[in-house]
């Protein structure tokens, strides 16, 4: 199985205030996100984390990665320090990736695109960065934890949720 997520911001207290995540402190936040991740992801699954994984103040990235199930791929975000991008626990690290799954081309980046490769051929842009606040284009999806129930999600879940959501994002 392949999962997607973004903007976990482990160890970054700004998300409690800016994104109003429902936790009393960072310790509770980080434990909940780890538990949520491990509830859905198995060791033989792949997880594409589309940036902003953890704060440099959060400790050792490899130790945190070892606590999370699955093979982890990082798409670098604007808040990923060298201690995160250079950790050995990643299966791959890059700024951008294109993968094929379920006969679909997925264009992965931390940032949402206005246009992307094979957009006219129904490719899908998965991104983070906007914390659920950006009105998406067709076939564009925010996979960040703020937009996806604080857990990694499959492409099928993203597409099914998109069909059930109102056309305008909450809070805008």
From TrEMBL:
InterPro entries: Calcineurin-like_PHP_lpxH, Metallo-depent_PP-like
Source organism of this protein record: Rhizobium phaseoli
Family indicated by similarity: Belongs to the metallophosphoesterase superfamily. YfcE family.
Keywords, sorted A to Z: Hydrolase
UniProt keyword Zinc-finger present: no
Domain of life: Bacteria
Name by which UniProt lists this protein: Hydrolase
Domain Calcineurin-like phosphoesterase: 2-132
SUPFAM superfamilies the UniProt entry points to: Metallo-dependent phosphatases
Molecular function via GO: hydrolase activity
């Amino acid at each position: 199985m392949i999962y997607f997520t973004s903007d976990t911001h482990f160890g970054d207290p700004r998300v409690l205030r800016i994104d109003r995540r429902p936790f009393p402190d960072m310790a509770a936040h980080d434990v909940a996100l780890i538990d949520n991740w491990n509830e859905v992801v198995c060791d033989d699954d792949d997880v594409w984390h589309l940036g902003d994984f953890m704060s440099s103040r959060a400790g050792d990235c490899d130790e945190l990665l070892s606590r999370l199930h699955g093979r982890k791929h990082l798409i670098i975000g604007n808040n990923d320090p060298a201690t995160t991008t250079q950790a050995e626990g990643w299966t791959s690290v890059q700024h951008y990736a294109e993968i094929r799954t379920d006969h679909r081309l997925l264009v992965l980046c931390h940032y949402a695109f206005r246009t992307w490769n094979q957009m006219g051929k129904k490719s899908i842009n998965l991104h983070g960065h906007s914390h659920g606040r950006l009105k998406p284009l067709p076939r564009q999806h925010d996979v960040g934890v703020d937009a996806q129930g604080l857990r990694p999600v499959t492409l099928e879940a993203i597409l099914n949720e998109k069909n059930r959501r109102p056309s305008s994002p909450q809070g805008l």
